[in-house]
User: Fold Sugar ABC transporter substrate-binding protein from Zafaria cholistanensis.
Amino acid sequence: MNQQLSAPTVARPARRGALAKTAAVLTAGVLLATGCSLKDPGAGSPASAAPAAAQEQAAATGVPSLEGKTVGIAAKDIVHDFSRKVYEELQARVEELGGTVVATQAEAKDDKHVADVENLIAQKPDAIVVILGDAQTLTPALKKVDEAQIPLFTVDFQSEYSKNNVTSDNWTIGSTLARTLAEDIGGSGKVLVFNGFPGVTPCRIRYNELKLVLEDYPQIELITPELQDKYEGTIEDARRQIEDNLRRLPAGEVDAIWSCWDMPQIGAAQAIEAAGRDDVKVYGVDAEPGALDLIADPDSAYQFTVAQQTTAMAQRSADNVALFLDGQADKVTTTSYLDPVFVTKDNVEQVRRDLGI
Assistant:
């Protein structure tokens, strides 16, 4: 059972058992983890059904126990599949290593995310892991973590105060997403862009890569003003925005829609279908179940997304916490990169089977 706390947080003792799905995915060998240096430890081993076996397995790969340690987790949200899975599987891995979890999720509210981090500081855990976040609003709270001498770790959130950030290679994601879009529309056309989260590190990187790639496609134009997606009611809001834009942009005036994540694109694809348009293609990231369903539909406008290794990311973050708290900071790199998996209409079913998504 996952404890999601919005009031004063309460620590949860280590769970005696591992998630079956974690074991199945890891055992199947779908991990494509790559460290940013040779000293970056591997993504970890399959989770065992018993804590003793899990700790023996961890020891075999150089990951120490978290017995007697408390790890605070502050997620920005569990609204979409990526953040929810990382949140759940990070808790599972900490518990498998013998640690105690204090978990919070901010319901996609920046002010609550800040309050959650500050609440964790007051509880003096041995480490804090932050999942996603807005750099502008969250950085002052992370400075307080540093001042309290609590080791900070992050997932998909770059911070000067973080001992380690686990993330996908967002430069590769961004450039591949942009190049795929550009080639699919023949190197010429007009693109609507959702760009509502410039302060969120993965979105900033992916957007910058879009701009960089399009320097070599001078006949592709980004339509202005750019669209502003939002966390709450994302799909419905995006659908309304695209419906409005399709009414004002006839065939030939828009060829594709880009976003740094899948949620608004699900609404975009729905709007395109409702309008009976077959001239607009959709591109996103995160391999949300709804996006995968649309990509699997040969008649849908949704063309491409990117799956991230949520189980491996969560496990790597917990393992890095364990190494650091064991005095092995030299084995913890500043950033741990994991390979993305690109999903198209041609391979969507295979990816779903391989990754269990």
